[in-house]
Design brief:
mainly alpha; AhpD-like; about 0% strand
Length: about 100
């Protein structure tokens, strides 16, 4: 992975952090992106593009949820998150990248 420039690596990291909806990752990677030479205009453009891309699957999930609501109850599947055996989900500590 050493073929990417520090700027490119910073842009990929920011896109992934935004896609993951991870505030600690954004807080971690934004200063690194500035250190890599990206200015505020470039960062704003990158974040806007990443947000546009991440909204596509979010919109598709919402559309699927609306379609799912119209199904008879008998056709609804079981949600794995309803299982009591799942471990508790916790957020990473503030300021840390996931």
């Amino acid at each position: 992975m050493n073929t990417l420039s520090p700027r490119d690596r910073a842009l990929v990291a920011l896109g992934a952090a935004l896609a993951a909806n991870c505030i600690p990752c954004i807080e971690h990677h934004l200063p690194l992106a500035r250190t890599a030479g990206l200015d505020d205009d470039e960062l704003a453009e990158a974040l806007l593009l990443a947000d546009r891309i991440r909204q596509v699957p979010a919109r598709k999930v919402l559309e699927a949820a609306h379609a799912f609501m119209s199904l008879p109850t008998a056709e609804h599947g079981n949600c794995p998150l309803d299982e009591p055996t799942l471990p508790a989900m916790t957020a990473p500590p503030a300021g840390k990248c996931c």
